[in-house]
Write a structure and sequence with these properties.
Order of helices and strands: EHEHEEHHEH
Strand content: 15-25%
Number of strands: 5
Mean pLDDT: 88
CATH superfamily: HybD-like
CATH topology: Rossmann fold
Number of domains: 1
CATH class: Alpha Beta
Distance between the termini: 8 Å
Radius of gyration: 14 Å
Low-confidence stretches: none
Largest sheet: 5 strands, mixed
Helix content: 40-55%
Length: 158
């Protein structure tokens, strides 16, 4: 069975910037028994995440991302669209580290067969332990989009 790594990225001390980690916490609370799913708080990224990434065939990254849209807007970038977004726009606070991780997985031959970025437009990146109202309301939306992708990919994998 191909498994999916749900990787939430962000600094939970910087209000909306920590939304990826908050989505992971939501998934852990409400979908802890989801078959084939591994939820991981990736914090502000590090190369130690290369190991868990290599152990899964699918990857869903959730992160605060500048989308030039109203706060709380959620967008999904799948496969090559994700790659282009991360390399072309340079709009995520963590994209350099994320691209480094993806490059490591490419070089090691463990590149995720299916991958997606779920980006959420932040409003504030100031000090605060919780996202603002618009971004807070996007947490369950992003979680459901991530679960939907995971379930569709599992069906496609057989």
């Amino acid at each position: 069975m191909t498994t999916t790594l749900f990787l939430g990225i962000g600094n939970i001390l910087l209000s909306d910037e920590g939304v990826g980690v908050h989505v992971i916490a939501h998934l852990q609370r409400h979908h802890a028994d989801e078959p084939g799913a591994t939820y991981l708080d990736g914090g502000t990224l590090s190369f130690t995440l290369a190991g868990p990434l290599a152990e899964h065939g699918h990857l869903i990254v959730i992160d605060a991302t500048r989308l030039d849209a109203p706060p709380g807007t959620v967008r999904v970038f799948i496969g090559e669209e994700m790659d282009r977004f991360l390399t072309g726009n340079r709009t995520s606070v963590h994209e350099v580290g994320l691209m480094d991780l993806l490059d490591i997985s490419r070089l090691s031959g463990r590149f995720p067969a299916r991958r997606a970025l779920i980006g959420i437009q932040p409003e504030s990146l100031g000090w605060g332990e919780r996202p603002g109202p618009a971004v807070e309301s996007a947490i369950p939306v992003a979680a459901e989009l991530a679960l939907g992708l995971h379930r569709r990919w599992r069906e496609m994998s057989g």
